[in-house]
Specification:
Shape: globular
Number of strands: 0
Structural class: mainly alpha
Strand content: under 5%
Number of helices: 13
Length: 242
């Protein structure tokens, strides 16, 4: 930090890089605190601090910081999206739904990821009718054809949301057999359908290849079913810095 040591934005970038590139939590926290001292009214600093707080399981604080960033720099689509994401990972699903819909309205050209958070928020709220509706929108935005969309509708009518999850897992595994290496997707879906052995097997494949950020392992609600298993603690201790 020899160059421009009084620049808060530089400390914020150093902090987020310390976390994401090197897993240095103490360095990241120190850098962000210095950034906030130097530039408390910087939307840039507040935004990156919010990202950092989400990653270290301080979700409610992350929401507060991202809302400060929005107050300082209103209607910036990226921050609005980050707030929806933060609310989702903080398990504040009703607020996440409202925020993600707002973010989709602000930026109509980049809605695929936001639609994913929307259907997953309904899913986590056990509102499966709305989850299906937005899941189908999500799949359509990714280019899935009408025949496959209708197949999901039929499965939901017969087997409910568990049937949809099982079908998604089967499709994901078929893609993997074709060389997609979509390990984190399979791990997540396997956890949701209750196949812990498969979930852990694919987590072990995903992490070394960088397919699953450690922060995602810590905060993703789709993996909640794994966290009471001793294998989760072993993976956590092996991969997350202390």
């Amino acid at each position: 930090m020899a160059v421009a040591p009084d620049l808060g934005d530089a400390y914020a970038l150093y902090g987020i890089n310390s976390l994401t590139c090197f897993g240095e939590l103490n360095t990241a926290e120190t850098s962000f605190q210095r950034a906030l001292e130097l530039a408390p009214n910087s939307a840039f600093v507040r935004r990156y601090y919010g990202i950092y707080l989400t990653a270290i399981e301080r979700g409610n604080e992350s929401v507060t910081e991202l809302r400060k960033a929005i107050d300082l720099e209103p209607n910036l689509s990226w921050t609005e999206k980050l707030l929806g994401r933060s609310l989702f990972f903080a398990r504040r699903y009703d607020e996440a739904i409202e925020q993600v819909k707002k973010a989709r309205q602000i930026d109509q050209n980049d809605i695929v990821e936001q639609t994913g958070y929307l259907f997953m928020s309904y899913e986590q709220n056990d509102d499966f009718d709305n989850a299906l509706e937005w899941f189908l929108v999500f799949e359509s935005l990714k280019g899935v054809g009408q025949k496959e969309l209708d197949s999901f509708k039929n499965i939901y009518a017969k087997s409910g949301w568990p049937g949809v999850l099982q079908k998604r897992l089967e499709i994901a595994e078929e893609k993997d057999r074709s060389g997609a290496e979509n390990y984190s997707e399979i791990a997540s879906l396997a956890a949701q359908v209750g196949d812990k052995d498969k979930a852990f097997a694919y987590l072990q494949k995903a992490l070394p290849k960088g397919h699953l950020f450690m922060a995602q392992l810590r905060i993703d609600p789709n993996l909640d079913a794994l966290r009471s298993d001793p294998r989760y603690k072993a993976i956590y201790d092996q991969n997350w810095p202390h």
